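Bit of a strange request maybe. I'm writing a small parser for structure token strings and I need a real example to test against, not something I typed by hand. Could someone generate the tokens for this chain?
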Amino acid sequence: MIPGIKKLLSRDQPPEHLPADVQAGLAAWRESAPPPLDEVHFHTRYLVVDIARSGAGPDDGRLLGIAAAAVRHAVIDPGEALYAAFDAAADAPGALERKLLAFLLHAAKAPLVTYHAPLVGACLARACKEALGIDFQPQWIDLAWLLPAMYDDMSSAVQPLDHWLAALGLDPGGGRRDAAANALLLARLFQMLLARARSRGIHSPARLIAEANASSVLRRVS
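Reply from user aminoacidic:
Good idea to test on real output. This should exercise your parser:
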């Protein structure tokens, strides 16, 4: 077989050993249509995501947990919070796959919001590829780049998350936070950012993504 063809044919194929319910759920997720990215923010469901991991980088250790908070109609929806913890030693066979599937179905291909999307996205993509055999490449909105673009009067450089929490009056008092607490704080930051974005004529997720990408390029080369 021509090199590369085998890889292409095997891409995004669930492992045959997956339980039938997981395979069915993955099929439903793959066939679901992504939401339009040109809708106004008020009509868009965003999912704010944070993770817990055992290492410092995307290739270190393993994924320990995923936390998510939904922002719908520009407000945090308490009924759509999710936290999945992964324990390789304690989880029953198939539990990891079902928890990852639950996250995928909860995300429903919505735009995902996080802080430092390359790191968070790489960890999630690796876990989904290894456990489910899928290529997880959602639309990411990276607050690490958007915040200095929207609040350049406070800082025009990428800053640690705690800098923005303090600058925007959301400082929880210091100390380590778990992924669930971080996801909620990120959701509150995102609410504030949406208001600032609208005041600057950025009215859709597509524009937010473009602004974040432009900001990342500008600040990397400056």
